[in-house]
Amino acid sequence: MRIKKLFTSFFLIITLAICYGQKSKTNSETRRFIDDADFTQINKNWNLTADFKSGLGEIVSFFPVEAIDLKTGQKVKSLQMDMTVLYQVAGRSYNYFKSSWIDLGEVEEFIIFLEQYVIPNLRDKAEKKQSTTYIFNSKEITFSFHIQQNSRRISIYLKDNGYTDYEHYFWTETQVSKIPDLLNVLKQLK
Question: What is the pTM of this model?
Answer without folding.
Answer: 0.81
